[in-house]
Amino acid sequence: MHTVMANNTCEGMDEVGLLRYVIINLVFFIGVAGNLAALWILYKSAKTRNKKHVLLLRCLAVNDLVAEVGMFSIITLQKYKLIPVYWICVGFVLLRAFGIGSGCVAFVMALERWLALTRPFYYQQLVTYRVLKIFVFSLWSGGALLTYLPLLGFGLYYNGKCCRYRDATELRDQIYAYMFLVFGTALCLCIAFCNLTVIWELSKIRPHGRVLMRRVSRSTMNSRVMAAKYQTPEEIAFAKLMAIICIIFVVCWAPQMISIPLAQFWKGSTFDGIFAKMANFLMCTYFTLDPYVYVLQRYIEKKKIALGCCWPRRSTGSITTSSITAGTPTSVLLNPPSFTSPSIM
Known about the structure:
The protein has eight helices and four strands, in the order H-H-H-H-H-H-E-E-H-H-E-E. It has helices spanning 15-45, 51-79, 85-118, 120-126, 129-148, 171-205, 233-265, 270-310, and strands at 213-219, 224-230, 319-325, 328-334.
């Protein structure tokens, strides 16, 4: 994204360059304000919300906030030539990890909802808060390690001036570019798959008035109990939020991946230049949109709660579940509760 910034001062800019500078700074400030607002909301509501959801949303907001503040700082240092060019290039590589890192967090969010909605038994058994935290950290670290390989000599980032890995001409650097392409594309495809599956599951629940049942196996000293748990309104709201964020990520990240083969096969063409600028702008937009999607979604859900308190809904159905206590199966009829004022996002 730093390619869209001019190296001279504002006084030396033409009108187009000045307008571009103002727009980019405005986008940065809007994004920072949004991420700070999202973190504040998460802080205030953490005690009444699902710990796993809070963890993932905090990771996403912190990642995006560091990316925006860091990128703005590096661009400002570059603009006024306050530090050597080489260290500017190193800074861009370091911050690139937060770009791929945002995708890693989005993938974990998508996978978590996919497991919760399609594999509830395994979700309850395997996806604990500790496991989720370790998985997020491990995946983010893996993405960061891939991003930092150019600093170890594998991948292009500096050649007398700042260079993009996608513009590589040597075989070793080209291999790195395609490795990055494979990793980023795999993230997009996995996110898309999980997201489409979640949307499909939600469509089967809501329009037909069905309740999604989650069976949980709990072990006791002398018995094994099979319990049923409804998909809570907070979980459904989180699934919707995750779907929106993941769609935004795929739309904004995919052009970055497409620009890699374009740069290799049509380098220097007009289309390649225009497409690269569009991809950079979309990536900048992604970091800005994420927090506002969350803040706006939470505001809408609160309005729905307020309306729900005034117009309570009746329970329209029941489900039957079975439990096994000391080896004897029994049948229990459960009436789904009417969620008139749920605690959701």
